[in-house]
Amino acid sequence: MSELLDIARLGHSILRQQAQVVKDVTESQIQVLIDNLIATAAAAKGVGIAAPQVSQSYRLFIIASRPSDRYPYAPTMQPTAMINPRILAASEAREKDWEGCLSVPGVRGLVPRSQEIEVEYGDRRGHLQKTILTDFVARIFQHELDHLNGILFIDRLESSEDRFTEKEYQTIIRKR
Ligand code: ZN
């Protein structure tokens, strides 16, 4: 049975730390953490969650894109654990689009991100994966990777005018 974990919120110092490299993903402690992160993201209707958000300072995150009232236009994919992830190359083309964060409730922002990235990560069985991500999933990867380096999406806003309440965001996306 997976356990739902408490999510650290804006102001908690764990969100501002550099997370540690995962040395052995096959350790049961890490495997349990992966399962609990997947369950916690699903329960909170998140499309991704990083280990530091549950106060575990490891370089590990989950991408679990699926449509919900938080992200009605999200593509559907299997929840995927990405361990010690890194970006190998990023497109110069950047797009501003909506982000939110389970650690920053009630706030939305239009965040510039690379539209396409080439990435490398270990999967939960310890195999190295290399792939190209685009658009919304590339955005989630960049957001979650920031969490491993102590950066939040609100730090990436180009202007205070790109910051919205959740309620205003909901009104705007329903018109799109
Ligand atoms: Zn986040």
Give an overview of the whole structure:
The structure is a single chain. This protein is α+β, with helices and mostly antiparallel strands. The strands form two sheets. Strands 1-2-3-6-7 form a five-stranded antiparallel β-sheet, sandwiched between helices. Strand 6 (116-122) and strand 7 (128-134) form a beta hairpin. It has one domain (13-174): Peptide deformylase (Peptide Deformylase, Alpha-Beta Complex), CATH 3.90.45.10. It starts with 27 loop residues before the first helix and ends with a helix. The model has no long low-confidence stretch (mean pLDDT 96). It contains three helices and eight strands, in the order H-E-E-E-E-E-E-E-H-E-H. It has helices at 28-43, 135-148, 166-173, and strands spanning 48-50, 60-63, 80-90, 94-99, 107-114, 116-122, 128-134, 163-165. It binds zinc ion. Zinc ion is lined by residues 101-103, 143, 147. Zinc ion binds at residues 101-103, 143, 147.
**Helix percent band:** 10-25%
Which H/E pattern describes the elements? HEEEEEEEHEH
CATH superfamily assignment?
Peptide deformylase
Number of strands: 8
- Counting helices, strands and paired strands, the structural category is alpha+beta
CATH class, please? Alpha Beta
Write the layout of secondary structure elements.
Layout: H1 28-43, E1 48-50, E2 60-63, E3 80-90, E4 94-99, E5 107-114, E6 116-122, E7 128-134, H2 135-148, E8 163-165, H3 166-173
Antiparallel strand pairs: 1-2, 2-3, 3-6, 4-5, 5-8, 6-7
The protein binds zinc ion.
